[in-house]
Amino acid sequence: MSFSDKFHLRIPGPTPVPARVMQAMQKPMIGHRSGEASSLYLECSAKLKLVFGTKTDPLLLSSSGTGALEAAVVNTVSPGEEAVVVVTGAFGDRFAKIVQKYGITLHRLDLPWGKACDPDLLASFLRQHPAAKAVFFTYCETSTGVLNPVRELAQSVREHSDALVIADGVSCLGAVPCKMDEWGIDIMVTGSQKALMLPPGLAFAAVSQRAWKQIEQNPTPRFYLDLLAYRKNLEKETTPYTPALSLLYGLAEALAMLEEEGLPRVFARHERLKTMTRAGIKALGLELMTSDADASPTVTSVYGGREKWEAETLRKELRALGVGVAGGQQHLKGKIFRIGHMGYCDELDILTVLSALEIALIKTGVPVELGSGVKAAQEVMLHV
Amino acid sequence: MSFSDKFHLRIPGPTPVPARVMQAMQKPMIGHRSGEASSLYLECSAKLKLVFGTKTDPLLLSSSGTGALEAAVVNTVSPGEEAVVVVTGAFGDRFAKIVQKYGITLHRLDLPWGKACDPDLLASFLRQHPAAKAVFFTYCETSTGVLNPVRELAQSVREHSDALVIADGVSCLGAVPCKMDEWGIDIMVTGSQKALMLPPGLAFAAVSQRAWKQIEQNPTPRFYLDLLAYRKNLEKETTPYTPALSLLYGLAEALAMLEEEGLPRVFARHERLKTMTRAGIKALGLELMTSDADASPTVTSVYGGREKWEAETLRKELRALGVGVAGGQQHLKGKIFRIGHMGYCDELDILTVLSALEIALIKTGVPVELGSGVKAAQEVMLHV
Fold first, then answer.
1. Can you say how many angstroms the Cα of residue B164 is from the centroid of all Cα atoms in its chain?
2. What residues does substrate bind to (chains A, B) (predicted)?
3. B116 and B139 part of one domain
4. Do A190 and A255 belong to one domain?
5. 3 state SS of A71
6. Are residues A67 and A184 in the same domain?
7. Interatomic CA distance for residues A273 and A267, integer angstroms
8. Which domain holds residue A288?
9. Closest approach of chain B CAs to the CA of A184, in angstroms?
10. Of the candidates A259, A275, A303, which is a domain's last residue?
11. Omega before B177 cis (within 30°)?
12. Does A28 contact B13 at a Cβ distance shorter than 8 Å?
């Protein structure tokens, strides 16, 4: 049996929320225009700067990550203008869908799901589309576990185009380095329910001076997602609309936790979690979806479907054991499962998942040596 | 002195969150596509139907109330089409701003702030604007404490126009009766942080069959706020984007509380809180902003500024005593203060506010008889 409240949530978001953060969210409500609320916004904004690697104040939106993706589109490019979207999976595809919805001319650079985008490939694509006003790509592609080389991609855009560089960091910011100012990224967005260890409901967007100029001139109608309103209100130490206060309380605490651990250590932990997970999966003879070079420190995709076992059956077995992993999206449905290892996740959590996975594999009739996946991960833990 | 964590938040939202709801929000995260999450959406949706007075499933948006206001506009009327907006205060004005932002031809029916809209006046205004595709108005106008007669306004629209009837119930739904199906309201929206006793971050929209037809044909680009995406996903027992899960846990609990008390009793309680507040204010010789007929059961506005005392000074004194009331918005800034009495608010809370108000008035040099406001409210409590 397994206690239902001991469920090990190892999907790539929503991720588990630490008790400290849960507790912080219990504070009583306050007026959203009060001095107390202003202090909260400023505290969160200041600490978020380090996560984004920027000197500008990240803006706080009360929405899912998709709200921030849409904000990044509607604020920068207007109908009839051109945009390049790099699609390495379902969330690149979402950027493309938003771009199309708004009547923006879409130049779509599709890559095989599971592969990162090569900066040279983007460069040559940009040479074919010199009029693009913005280039959109994902940092971590949640649907495959690919980490795109955003630094190099940004450099490539800057060298070959005047387009804004816009990145979706929803499923990795806070777990991987980000120096958006230094790397030349114009807009970086993220959400609360991934590496930031919060429930869903908040999204963030940090915007460069260069992007603001384009945003100021963009006539696309927008209201709730109008970033200019967020900037104007942040100058007055407030938000344009009532923000999700309890999540902001939690955010301040989660950011304090990241500060205490120290961002370099946080990033190293996620690297270790990735390496442990991959070592375990390999030792069990399962097929990883991404190469070592392309793999994200936050989520690992594993191929099923082609062996004797089926990804969805395996997920059900894992669920019965008290471990939740995600399935595949779109054409990968039933073909892969995904292990989330970001945010409030440590080494023992990975050993737990791997040990449960071994049981689940045996139960679904896949012959694996019990303990072999765990052992491989332990070796990483001890020696890397 | 006053304990800072005993602060009596009596603004018209965010409102205090009951301990039960706080506790419910502490549940661990779950996958937003899991069966558990589906049960949660369905439970909330079923209970919300009673609050809205509809047989359709209210849609769950993760945004502030303004997100839902914008959704009501962009989904129904397209650029170049006409809309009527009844403006009885700052939130009617917000509807008008959204309508203008989207290039919709605005016919604005302005009323003096503090007065409700007369259904006959709306009827004659509609005769001048027969091409309007939708009529927007607020149920409770938060900025003044006016409750518009939405039932009669809806009837007026239905008799004189084919326009959709769209109402903003953000600061009253859950505290006042709403029978949107019976009254002929096509879209009703509300938010979490008012009478529903939750932190901000969730908004809701219930939509009539008649409105869906117009929405299906509306070409206005929209993505995060596209109600069709919410309807399609609700049919699959899910939401299009990751919802604010912790707030949904809280919502289920808050709706259970409303069910236990019984909606007729909830409405009667709010009526009593209004009558007590108004009796107390009158007994203290202060001027109410609205007539008894136009007054909302959820918020009461009181004129300052014209006497020896000043609304903002009074608010500061109240704050020092541990009571938070709201100031005026737009041209009413510094001229009124507003007492919120909705959601998790009972009779003793009103006596507390009034007793603190008496102290604050004395401290700001306004001669009032101590206890006289409290007494008038107690009389209501005992005899009405």
1. 20
2. 338
3. yes
4. yes
5. helix
6. yes
7. 10
8. 4-15+263-383
9. 27
10. A259
11. no
12. no
Instruction: Give yes or no: residues B167 and B182 share one domain.
Output: yes
pLDDT in tens, B290-312: 999 999 999 999 997 555 578 89
Q: How far is the first Cα of chain A from the last one, in angstroms, to the nearest whole number? A: 34
Maximum alpha-carbon separation in chain A: 62
Chain A: closest CA distance from residue B15 (Å): 7
The CATH number for A59's domain is 3.40.640.10
Query: Does residue A267 sit in the same domain as residue A255?
Result: no
Q: CB A243 to CB B97 under 8 A?
A: no
Identify the three-state secondary structure at position A206: strand
Contact B199 A224 (CB under 8 A): no
Query: Which residues, other chains included, contact A85 with Cβ-Cβ below 8 Å and sequence gap of 6+?
Result: A92, A95, A96, A99, A106, A107, A108, A109, A135, A136, A137
**Measured between alpha carbons, how far is A73 from B223 in angstroms, rounded to an integer?**
11
Give the SS3 label for residue B354: helix
Structure token pair of residue A325: 């992993």
Q: Do A247 and B245 touch (CB under 8 A)?
A: no
Q: How far is CA B184 from CA B64, B123, B171, B178, B209, in A?
A: 25, 15, 20, 11, 11
| pLDDT score, position A4 | 72
Last residue of a domain, one of A222, A240, A259: A259
Nearest to A5 among B22, B28, B324 (CB): B28
* Same domain, residue pair B241 and B278: no
| Residue B338 among known ligand-binding residues | yes
> Does the pLDDT value for residue A307 go beyond 90?
no
ipTM above 0.90, yes or no: yes
pLDDT in tens, B347-371: 999 999 999 999 999 999 898 999 9
Residue that is written with structure tokens 């959204």 in the block: B98
Is B65 found in the same domain as B190? yes
Rounded to the nearest 10 degrees, the angle between the axes of helix A372-383 and helix A263-283 is: 150
DSSP letter for each residue of B193-244:
TSTT---SS-EEEEE-HHHHHHHHH-----STT-HHHHHHHHHTTS-SS---
Question: Tell me, what CATH number does B297's domain have?
Answer: 3.90.1150.10
Domains of chain B: total? 2
The whole-angstrom separation of Cα B230 and Cα B45 is 12
